[in-house]
Structure formats: structure tokens, C-alpha cells
Amino acid sequence: MAADLCFEHDGIALAYDDLGDRGAPAVVLLHGGSMSRGTWSAVAPRLAATHRVLAVDLAGHGDSDRAPGGYAVPDQGRRIAALCENVVGGDVVVIGSSYGALVAVYLAAERPDIVLAAVLGDPPIYIMDPDVWPSTMFGMFFPMLRAAMEDAHRTDDPAGSMAAWLRTLPVFAEMLGEEGIESSSRSWAKCDPEVLAATDGPSIGAVWGGHSPDAPIDCPVLVLRADPSVLAAFAAEHEDRFRQAAAGSQFVFAEGCGHGIHEERPDWFTEQVETFLAALGATHGTTR
């Protein structure tokens, strides 16, 4: 483990950073698929001014252990729930981006005893359907990414190999920019390619591991929507369906911003979260 802190659950060690006052209300940050906790580097320190912030590498990512066959959303969710119970010991707000947002959705639905609220960054809740996924940009990109990761992991410089591959894809390279290419490539160099196994077309439903994306959620939820003119996984037409599951949800549109909202516009993302957390503290207090 390269991280100073780790938590073990069922033989799988999770690396995490723990920032801020340990007596403050807790926030848990969950990154997207194939990424790592470093993706929150521009957000975590600012939130730590008022909250205890735990940025976690999900299993198979970053400095955490690999868990072959254990990458479905419920698998990851149970590990994070155990971390919340044993490390935090109280209520948490879960903040997730992309795949991490799916884990946050699972936790909000299945563990209302520990999840006070959730923030979802462009969550791909409803596009992970065998009839929808293959025609999306995500459905086309992730199988290519998995193959490139497998090739890169056979070289002496996986991160360099991934960066070189990404630069052959002008649309994605331009979207990420040079800094994004470098940070993404470093994350991909550490990620277990099996994490992306369920992103191949007909297998996409396996990501949910039997959990229903329409399971009821009783806690407050903030959904930050990306701009479809750039790249978005959660569309405006998904809002009504999500409200059926989470009546206490609110939506904010990130105009001009793509799927990685917290990396593309970290100041704006943090401001939205801070406003949500402030209102949450006023109406719910810091504990139940």
C-alpha cells in the first residue's frame, strides 16, 4: 500500500486520505471507474476547511487492493459502508462521480442508517442498460480503454503507454487537456482492467450487481448534471424518473461542462457542494 492510511474489509485493503477536523461532519469522496482518489485533489482540501473529508480508492483502483470478481456496485458499496462505520463511526455525506456516484446511490438506498445525504456528479444511472449503453460515447470508449490498459500493463511504463494511446484519440485528448491526460494515465496505470469487464455491451447490467437503480432513497440528494453538448451521462429527461426514487432530490446544470465536473470546474463543483452541505446542516443538523 502506497498510502499512509488504509482500511481492510474482508481481506481487501482500501487506501484513503483523511483530511480536516476528525470531529467535524464527515464527507466521503468516491471517484469514477478506472480513476483514483487523486481525482479529488482540487476539491478535498477546500471541503476539509469545514468537514472531515475521506477520499477513498475503491477496490481495484489506485493504491487499494484488487478484488477480482468483486467490482459490482454492491461489492464496492459494502466496503465503503464498513469504512464509514469503523473509521468515521457516524453519519456521512457521500459524494461520488460517475461510477462512484453509482456506489453513492447504492449506499443512499441500502444504508440510510449511515448516509445522511448524497451528491452525485453526472451519474450514469439510466444509461447502463444493454439497449442504451453500446450507442453512447461511454459504451464505445470503455471497451477500448480496457484493451489499452491490458496492453499498457504488459509494458515497463504503463502510464506512458496509456498517455500515448490517449493522444491518438483527439476528441478525448482535447476534452481532457494535457494535465487531464497525465492524471488519467497515472490512474489507469494502477487500475485493474477487470474493473471495466462489465462495460462491454450486453454485460453492462452486471455493474449494478442485482441492485435496482430505482430503489427508493429517503435522504436529500444533489445531482450535478453535465452538459450534453460536451459529454453527459445523466440527461434532463432522467430527472423525473430519479425523483420517483428520491423525492428529496435537487438538480443543478453545469453548463459547458462535461462528465468530469469536479475536475473540469472544481471551484464551481465545490461551491455547489458547500451550499448543499450548509443547507443540510441547517435543516438536519450534523447528526441524526
What features would you describe in this structure?
This protein has 288 residues and is of the alpha/beta class. It has a domain at 5-128 and 212-281: 3-Layer(aba) Sandwich (Rossmann fold), CATH 3.40.50. It contains nine helices and eight strands. It has helices spanning 44-47, 73-88, 99-110, 137-152, 158-166, 170-190, 239-245, 261-264, 266-284; strands at 5-9, 12-19, 26-30, 52-56, 92-97, 115-121, 221-225, 249-253. Helix 2 crosses helix 3 and helix 5 (158-166) runs antiparallel to helix 6.
Write out the strand line-up for the largest beta sheet, numbering strands in chain order. 1-2-4-3-5-6-7-8
Distance between the termini: 35 Å
Q: What is the CATH fold-level name of one domain? A: Rossmann fold
Q: What percentage of amino acids are in beta strands?
A: 15-25%
User: What count of helical segments does DSSP give?
Assistant: 9
Radius of gyration: 18 Å
Looking at the structure, what is the overall shape?
A: globular
Task: Name the CATH homologous superfamily of one domain.
Answer: Alpha/Beta hydrolase fold, catalytic domain
Task: List its traits.
288 residues, alpha/beta, Rossmann fold, 8-stranded mixed beta sheet, 8 strands, 38% helix
Write the layout of secondary structure elements.
Layout: E1 5-9, E2 12-19, E3 26-30, H1 44-47, E4 52-56, H2 73-88, E5 92-97, H3 99-110, E6 115-121, H4 137-152, H5 158-166, H6 170-190, E7 221-225, H7 239-245, E8 249-253, H8 261-264, H9 266-284
Parallel strand pairs: 3-4, 3-5, 5-6, 6-7, 7-8
Antiparallel strand pairs: 1-2, 2-4
